[in-house]
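Section 5: illustrative case.
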């Protein structure tokens, strides 16, 4: 997402017509991807076949060019906000 403003979680959900559950499913997918414990192509097929973790709709969305990078950018922004909030709470408490 070069030269583009990172979206907030709410902006991301609205843009893609996602629910909180969809977002949690994307976070689960990312956690699995980072763990390296499963072949993600196989996992995408399981999502489609068994309607797992958002099913075919979310699996199709993940593989569409640019979508997942946009999610990761939003997730990073969300993480930075949480770190900042925790920092402020710990220094003001």
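Designed sequence:
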């Amino acid at each position: 997402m070069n030269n583009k403003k990172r979206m907030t979680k709410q902006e991301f959900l609205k843009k893609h017509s996602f629910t909180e559950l969809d977002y949690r499913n994307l976070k689960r997918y990312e956690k699995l991807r980072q763990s390296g414990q499963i072949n993600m192509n196989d996992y995408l097929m399981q999502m489609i076949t068994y309607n797992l973790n958002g099913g075919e709709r979310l699996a199709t969305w993940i593989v569409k060019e640019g979508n997942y990078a946009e999610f990761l950018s939003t997730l990073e922004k969300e993480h930075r906000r949480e770190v900042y909030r925790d920092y402020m709470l710990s220094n003001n408490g």
